[in-house]
Write a structure and sequence with these properties.
single chain, 470 residues, Heat Shock Protein 90, five-stranded mixed beta sheet, 16% strand
């Protein structure tokens, strides 16, 4: 059998490579943005200046800029044809023109006419005078030629004309020689220039690929400044969102804990209270059947008012004040049967406030504390009053008793009930709700719960007809 060929791992697809590249780019983007946010604007300006200076230096170095030198031979260079010599002009009379005035001395005697500059030492021959006349436009007055016309011994007219013609011819010959010499000099200059062009030379070519670096650096600096200004706001917003999420989660956990406590309290429904009530009903059945029947009806009303609303109260956190009073009223009636003449109760709640929202189980907890720690330990008992009113736009519910007073009874509590009420109010309303505990006159304790007033008009209130004074 042939051994199985080793399996090669599949090569990553283009999509996978692009995912890796994009994730790496995003990670480095966030790293750079965090660095920009963490640095000060002064350091950012220094960073921008260093970046610009470095870019200007780098763009002049390889591989962004390099120079290539090469030798160029005469065959590779363009040939410059020498200019054709100008055709000689027709002979013309020489014209002498000077920028400065020239003073000549003219002497006429029996021997002839002599014309020479005033600073000449001696007269020159006619031929030398003619050649000098051709350069008169570029020489000084001291170099100008002299002209001598000899009349001869007899001074005949023919001799004079002949002398003048000879002088003129000599001047024309000298001018022509000067022009020929000038043409020869120009030809020599053109030949020298052509020879210089045919000599090999070195040509240097500069290639630049880094001209875009400065523009790229400017764009990078502007983009970094914009990123520094905007990314900081995003980080701050994310931090605030994270803090808000943590706070909301913590508040939710606290609310769940408090609601769990309330659920446990509502599930218990004071077992000792139920046992005592049932024992009292059993006793009254034998001694006072009508009172036993009334006490039983109050217990049924209490259970009917408290049990069905447990789940609703846990879900919403509040319910209307009328439903709370529907629990308090039968509870107090049961206690009045047990305590007989030692307990007097009063519920003072206007009809219009029965639909106001109020957290569940708070009034019941205050009433239980007032009776258990204030009125029951007192030998002669006392009175308990539940009152609701609007104070400065808020709903204030007060439970006042004439018992022993806060913390004076042997059965005084630990204050956990009031602490739970404060915690629940803080979770539900924040600083808009409050609990105040004061001394009642002439004795006892007065506890007031203040919450924002919100009406739940349209709900069914079991105790709507029980708002009058009991």
């Amino acid at each position: 059998m042939n051994p199985a060929a080793p399996s090669t791992p599949p090569s990553p697809t283009a999509y996978q490579r692009w995912q890796r590249f994009s994730s790496t780019a995003v990670r480095w983007f966030h790293i750079y943005a965090n660095w920009l946010v963490g640095t000060s604007w002064k350091r950012f300006i220094v960073y921008a200046i260093v970046l610009l200076v470095s870019t200007n230096i780098i763009q002049e170095l390889p591989p962004f800029t390099w120079r290539v030198s090469e030798h160029v031979d005469a065959e590779d260079m363009p040939v410059v044809k020498p200019a054709k010599p100008a055709k000689p002009a027709k002979a013309a009379k020489p014209v002498i023109s000077l920028d400065k005035p020239i003073h000549y001395e003219v002497t006429i005697d029996e021997r002839g006419v002599r014309i020479h500059p005033t600073n000449s030492a001696s007269a020159a021959s006619a031929s030398s005078a003619a050649s000098a006349a051709s350069d008169a436009t570029s020489e000084s007055a001291s170099d100008l030629p002299s002209v001598n016309i000899d009349f001869g011994k007899e001074g005949k007219t023919e001799d004079i004309k002949r002398a003048v013609e000879q002088a003129r011819q000599a001047l024309e010959d000298a001018a022509q020689e000067a022009r020929d010499a000038a043409h020869e000099a120009a030809d020599e200059q053109r030949e020298a220039a052509a020879e210089a062009q045919r000599m090999p030379r070195t040509r240097t070519t500069v290639y630049r690929l880094g001209d875009f670096l400065v523009n790229l650096a400017v764009f990078w600096i502007l983009a970094s400044a914009l990123l520094k200004a905007t990314y900081k706001g995003r980080i701050v917003a994310e931090q605030k969102a994270a803090v808000a999420a943590e706070t909301a989660e913590a508040e939710s956990l606290k609310r769940q804990v408090v609601e769990a406590r309330m659920a446990a309290m509502q599930a218990q429904v004071e077992p000792h209270f139920l046992f005592n009530t049932l024992a009292s009903i059993d006793h009254l059945i034998e001694t006072d059947p009508p009172r036993a029947s009334q006490m039983q009806k109050n217990l049924i009303a209490l259970l009917r008012a408290s049990m069905p609303t447990m789940r609703e109260a846990n879900a919403t956190g509040v319910r209307d004040l009328g439903r709370e009073l529907a629990v308090i009223k039968p509870y107090l009636e049961i206690l009045k049967v047990r305590m007989e003449e030692r307990l007097q109760t009063e519920i003072d709640v206007p009809e219009g406030l029965l639909s106001a929202e109020f957290p569940p189980m708070m009034i019941q907890g205050l009433v239980e504390n007032a009776i258990k720690h204030g009125l029951e330990p007192k030998a002669e008992g006392g009175s308990l009053r539940v009152k609701a009113e609007i104070v400065h736009g808020k709903l204030a519910v007060t439970v006042a008793d004439t018992g022993l007073g806060f913390g004076r009874a042997a059965t005084s509590g630990t204050g956990v009930g009031l602490a739970n009420i404060r915690e629940r109010l803080m979770l539900l309303y924040g600083p808009r709700a409050a609990v105040t505990v004061t001394e009642n006159q002439p004795s006892g304790t007065k506890v007031t719960i203040t919450v924002p007033y919100v009406s739940r008009a349209g709900d069914d209130h079991p105790s709507a007809n029980e708002g009058a004074k009991a």
